Amino acid sequence: xxxxxxxxxxxxxxxxxxxxxxxxxxxxxxxxxxxxxxxxxxxxxxxxxxxxxxxxxxxxxxxxxxxxxxxxxxxxxxxxxxxxxxxxxxxxxxxxxxxxxxxxxxxxxxxx
Length: 112
Known about the structure:
Blueprint: E1 3-7, E2 10-12, E3 18-25, E4 34-39, E5 46-51, E6 57-58, E7 68-73, E8 78-83, E9 92-98, E10 101-102, E11 106-110
Parallel strand pairs: 2-11
Antiparallel strand pairs: 1-3, 3-8, 4-5, 4-9, 5-6, 7-8, 9-10, 9-11
């Protein structure tokens, strides 16, 4: 049974940081790409970026380049999204996807 669970979201002030985690099970994690998406209220879901099995990161959203870092720890079946210098426009539900499956999402709210 495939499970993908995100965590680490919350309410922060502009300029602060959060680290999201994506814990996966039920599939060969180390061989799969791990995708991070986000969806703000009233907007389409957008790809934040993804990390290949070898740790190379692709397709990082322009608006988060230099602030967000995608990584993975295959031994722990976990993907990470480190978000620094958060802005109000980063407010969204953040999702992890892998192996054709999605997590339930974790809410990130950036507000003064």
